[in-house]
Design goal:
The chain has 260 residues and is α/β, with parallel strands linked by helices. The chain is built from nine helices and ten strands. It is globular, with a radius of gyration of 19 Å. It starts with a strand and ends in an 8-residue tail after the last helix.
């Protein structure tokens, strides 16, 4: 998998590690990170902001972003194989915990929400209500390929014949939704509102007002990553929480930090 080194002096700011007291530069460790959005984004996502803030807390590390746009499922494969080192924004699932390590501290608090076409009168507030709405077999829920939401739908008793999990990206699934190739799309906020607004689909899609769940997301690490490096990253996360950085980043993206 091709990788692109992004120095922290790049488009979103930052600084390299400071020289050691002897004047000899501190060796830089390159952390291989998957890219989950377009490389030409005008501003960093919430997770990208957290990762950039973390590199400012932990001396001697530099982010190396994948040039490929990876689903979370593909990223887990690469992390498990040791071809990637770390990432941000993962719900806990039993399957993933068997393959990769989670940070001890949650970094983001997310709402699980549903989108429908603007003229759809649906009013769904729980997974039970969603299961009932899909029970007659006429409607379909769209979910991104490799998303943890697929497991959550299964745990809610929603069967595969009511699920379309073929498309890898949210904008593709939202186009399918608008074209009537599914009644619901399940995703998270912050995130879904930004996708809809950035594409100018506000008048064609609405997000249902009730969140199905509010859950924390975590950083994840490859089991191949040096444990000492992982401990330094974990300590950096603790400092970002203590000084309010995680909260400020979450609020910039209309979200909440864990515990709020």
């Amino acid at each position: 998998m091709a990788l692109l080194t992004v120095a922290l002096l790049g488009a979103w700011g930052g600084a390299d590690a400071s020289p050691a007291p002897s004047g000899v530069p501190t060796p830089v460790l390159e952390l291989r990170i998957p890219r989950h959005g377009p490389s030409d984004a005008k501003a960093p996502s919430m997770c990208e902001e957290i990762l950039l803030a973390l590199t400012r807390q932990v001396a001697g590390v530099r982010l190396v972003w994948s040039t490929d746009w990876l689903t979370h499922d593909r990223a887990v494969q690469e992390l498990a194989a040791g071809r990637l080192d770390t990432d941000c924004g993962y719900y806990r699932t039993a399957e993933r915990e068997a393959r990769i390590l989670y940070s001890h501290r949650a970094v983001i608090r997310m709402e699980t929400v549903l989108a429908v076409r603007a003229d759809d009168p649906a009013d769904i507030a729980t997974f039970d209500e969603l299961r009932a709405a899909l029970a007659d077999g006429h409607d379909t829920i769209l979910v991104n390929a490799g998303s943890a939401f697929l497991e959550r739908l299964h745990r809610a008793g929603i069967e595969d014949h009511s699920i379309d999990a073929w498309a890898a990206h949210s904008d593709t699934n939202l186009r399918k939704l608008m074209n009537g190739r599914g009644r619901f799309f399940i995703f998270r906020n912050p995130g879904l509102t930004e996708v809809i607004q950035s594409n100018g689909w506000d008048g064609r899609i609405r997000i249902l007002p009730h969140s199905l769940a509010v859950e924390d997301q975590y950083m994840v690490f490859s089991r191949h990553l040096d444990p000492e490096v992982r401990e330094r990253l974990e300590a950096g996360l603790d400092r970002l929480a203590a000084d309010g950085t995680l909260e400020r980043i979450a609020r910039r993206h209309t979200g909440r930090a864990p515990g709020l």
